[in-house]
Structure formats: structure tokens, C-alpha cells
Amino acid sequence: MIVRKSPAEVELMAKAGKVVAELHQVLREVVRPGVSTQHLDEVAEREVRSRGGIPSFKGYRGFPATLCTSVNDQIVHGIPSPDVVLREGDLIKIDAGAIVDGYHGDSAVTWIVGGEDTVAPEVRDLVERTRQGLWAGLEAAAKGRRLSDISAAVEAVATPHGYGVVREYVGHGIGRALHEDPHVPNFGRPGRGPKLVPGLVLAVEPMFNLGTADTRTLADDWTVVTQDGSLSSHWEHTVAITDDGPWVLTARDDEPAWPLAMRAAG
Ligand code: MG
Ligand code: MG
Q1: Model confidence pLDDT, tens digit, residues 55-89
Q2: Separation between Cα atoms, residue 99 and residue 245, nearest integer Å
Q3: Using CA atoms, how far apart are residues 12 and 19, in angstroms rounded to an integer?
Q4: How far is the CA of 23 from the centre of ligand 2 (A)?
Q5: Could you tell me the distance, in angstroms and rounded to a whole number, from the CA of residue 57 to the centre of ligand 2?
Q6: Cβ neighbours around 22 below 10 Å, total
Q7: CA 158 from chain center: how many Å?
Q8: What's the CA gap between 158 and 194, in Å, rounded?
């Protein structure tokens, strides 16, 4: 069942989104060679709680941490650990969620540890194109379109480059629950599925792999990796469909919260 949110609820969700956005801005400055993913998690929990939020993931189906931290061939759901120390050239995917006033925000980033110059151009391109796939999906999250228009827009960014588009993990509705209907796949033909109506709030989250789309789960029962060991990138934002266009509730300071309005304004 798809739960539409009232304008007042969307405003509340924007508060949760802002906490997640600010958290990512803080963490971006903390990510560097020599830092453990456990340290990132400690910073994250402090930052979320200091803003009046509750970590969404901690305790969710038994997940033990505030962040999912997934390195290199790990796609999603990596568990922070003092033993995972970031090195120059690593891809660190940080996925974070926060609950504020009962509503969730959910957003993920891929940072290149030590900066873009520490990796091969094909790795830099994977990260950048996955980010572009996210924004293509967000711009398609417009009133009057259909759900699979988002999926098709994301996939269209990956296809020319031959990336594996992960199929087993997809985006989702979000609200009082972290995961609500509908599923938001990152692949598929356009023009299908439910009509996008104001009050629908979605987490759009492409995962592109340098190799095949296939995944497997490690023995910790959480960490999802590429089956062929290839590198993976993951970006995610929470977006509300509104009468005024897509509103990216988790947009950071350097990103457009209203991407279509920005585009229209040139
Ligand atoms: Mg997430
Ligand atoms: Mg999500």
C-alpha cells in the first residue's frame, strides 16, 4: 500500500532530510585515509542525536550501527568496524538515515578516499555516472509521470557504459517507515507503474557496478558485495513529488533541492 503524505507531513520529512544532509556534509570532512568506518559511525550517531534525530538503521532488523559503510566491491549494508581503515583510493559508500518527529530521511553517497586523483579514470567515471543516474531519476520524479519513468531514467545513464545495474536491491517509498511501498527499481521500461502524485515520497538509490550486476551476501548476513569483485558505486536521495516539482529532501548545500525549478531557471 502506497502512503501519500500531506503537505504538512512532507514539511516534517524535510526536517529529517535536513538532518541526513547535514550529517553527510560533516562526514565528508571526516573521510580520509587512516580513518576507520567505526569512527565514521561514532561521529554519525553523535551528529544525528545532537540534531534531535534518531538513527534509522540502528536496530532495524537487528542492524548494529547508525551507518552502512560499504567499501570498494561492497555495494550496500556494510557494517562499520574498527578493523576497516580507509586507504587512499578506496570507494567508501556511506548510507545514512535519521528519524525526526516520526519520519525518516535516507541518503547515500560514494566518496573517493584521498580525492579523485587517487583512482583510475574509469573508477572516477563510475562514481560520477552513478551520481548522474541518481539525479536523472530525481528529475523524473515529477507529478503526472509514472514510477517506471524514474527507473528508466536511471538505467539510461548506465547502459551506454555497460555498467552492471544492481537488480536485487532497489529504492523504495519512505515515510513513517524506512521502507514503504512502492519498490523503485533502477531499471525497466518507462511509462509503467503507479502515477506519480503529490505526496508520494521516494528514496531513489542507483547502484552501478564496473562489472556484472550480480551480488552476494557475506557471512555477516548484511554486507552485499559484487559477485565478480568489481567496484560499485551507490548514491541515494529522498525525494517528494509536489505540485512544484520534485523536492529533494536530503539535498546537501551544494545540490539543488528543486532540480527541475533550477533547470527551468537556467
Ligand atoms: Mg539508504
Ligand atoms: Mg534507501
Answers
A1: 999 999 999 999 999 999 999 999 999 999 999 99
A2: 24
A3: 11
A4: 16
A5: 10
A6: 19
A7: 16
A8: 24
Place of cell 545532537: 50
The answer to whether 77 and 223 have CB atoms below 8 angstroms apart is: yes
Side-chain-side CA neighbours of residue 134 (13 Å): 30
Instruction: Tell me the CA–centroid distance for residue 266 and ligand 2, in Å.
Output: 30
- DSSP label at residue 161: G
Full DSSP string of 48-93: HHHTT-EESSTTGGG--SSEEEEETTEEE-PPP-TT-B--TT-EEE
Q: Check residue 195 and report its DSSP letter.
A: B
User: 105-133: per-residue pLDDT in tens?
Assistant: 999 999 999 999 999 999 999 999 999 99
- Of the listed ligands, the closest to the CA of 174 is 2
- The number of the ligand nearest the C-alpha atom of 235 reads 1
Question: Which ligand minimizes its atom distance to the CA of 94?
Answer: 1
User: What rounded mean pLDDT belongs to the chain?
Assistant: 97
What's this model's pTM, rounded to 2 decimal places? 0.98
- Nearest ligand, CA 172: 2
CB-proximal residues (5 Å) to ion ligand 2:
106, 203
Which residue has 537556467 as its cell numbers? 266
Domains, the chain, ordered by start: 7-265 (3.90.230.10)
